[in-house]
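Q: Structure tokens for this one, please.
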Amino acid sequence: RTLLEALNVIYIGAGLIVIAKESLGGKVGCGKKRGTEFGAPKCCPESSDKVYISRDRVLIEPVLDQAARDVLADNGGMLVATHGICNLDEPGRCQPVADFPAPAAEVLMLHRDTGGQVWAGTEEGLFRRDPAGHWLPSPLHWATVRTVLEEPSGRLLFGTNGQGILVREPGNGAAGPARQIGPEQGLSSPFVRALLALPDGLALVGTEDAGLCLLSRKLAVIRCISREGGLPHHSAHY
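A: Here is the predicted structure, written as tokens:
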């Protein structure tokens, strides 16, 4: 089985776990004891290499023992956002991407847009790889980008750590984001943790310290709510 056949890849601060699924033809399997937190039966032998759950076999297997913030399928392997970017082509082997311009930066976000460009949000700025596979040597913006939302039109919204939302309209070519949405435009905080598309072209913005904001199709801030408005916590993300 290849990495791309996995049902899910969980990326955590300590590494990567691949969760895959195979049919056992109706047999009930058993998994290792440490897999019980994922729902495996407690009868699992300590010596088992995999985790088996219910009528299907669910494999829960560590594949990378280093920090991983995001992953992106790429050319039969997987790009992993860590300190720099590495290419995971088989379990345990993640080769650094040699031409990535910020090899020591902590990479927080990876995204491939509909045009085939790959975006990397890092603590040293926003980097872009063109559809031919070449990384631009300089960041398109110096903000720390943590999340991204691509709209059906191709417009990209980048959530940043301290500079609100950066907007890149489709057809900008090699140009970086040209518009910014922050507190001056009504956003409750410039620290954006999450972006979620809603019906009718609306978007929900989760902030680090000031709850949620709702954006219109034209990216006007409609309303923001935090704990005072009924949220259980001021930090909103997923």
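A few notes: The chain is about 0% helix and 40% strand. Confidence is low (pLDDT under 50) at residues 1-7, 19-56.
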